[in-house]
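2024-03-11 09:14:02 INFO queue: dequeued item Two-component system regulatory protein, len=200
2024-03-11 09:14:02 INFO validating residues
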Amino acid sequence: MIRILLAEDQALVRGALSALLSLESDLEVIGTAPDGEAAWREVQRLKPDVLVTDIEMPGLSGLELAQRIQRHALPMKVVIVTTFARAGFLRRALDAGVSGYLLKDAPAEDLAEALRKVHRGGRAIDPQLAIDAWTDADPLNDRERQVLRLAGDGMSASEIAAQLNLSSGTVRNYLSEAIGKLGVGNRIEAYRLARQKGWL
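2024-03-11 09:14:37 INFO prediction written
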């Protein structure tokens, strides 16, 4: 029996996924979580074989959750099921040790088969996204991404500096680097482009 923890912030989707997976004789949904922090607590408490998670959730995102699992070297597989068909998200997911990346519009039987494949040690990646991921590389480093995300939330350079414990000049340098790498005119355009590509 493959023991699954399901992390998804939309209750309807969470319930539907749980019901679909429970129809499979070799899959057992042992718990669900409505956000990333709750999922992290359940991961430690339940020790599932596979965590199935969305990307965008309150608290911790699915990618941050995968990174935390990787950092703590927890012995479980992570499969992301999302609406975000963005190569940038897939690249970051793979860097975080994710074994599966599927889109929510995939047939239910594809998800069940992907979970079996991942549990056996394989990978299950949406094929078109896999192709796109290697042709559209993310030029941003982690700090540039962090600063740009906060700028996109409307924070000023001094507010970002205070939050990240950096100087305002350093924050402006990171923003300038990100703007230059993305070939746009300002921080708002940089944020929009990076979001669209799945790099934030």
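2024-03-11 09:14:37 INFO annotate: The CA atoms of residues 79 and 100 lie 4 Å apart.
2024-03-11 09:14:38 INFO item closed
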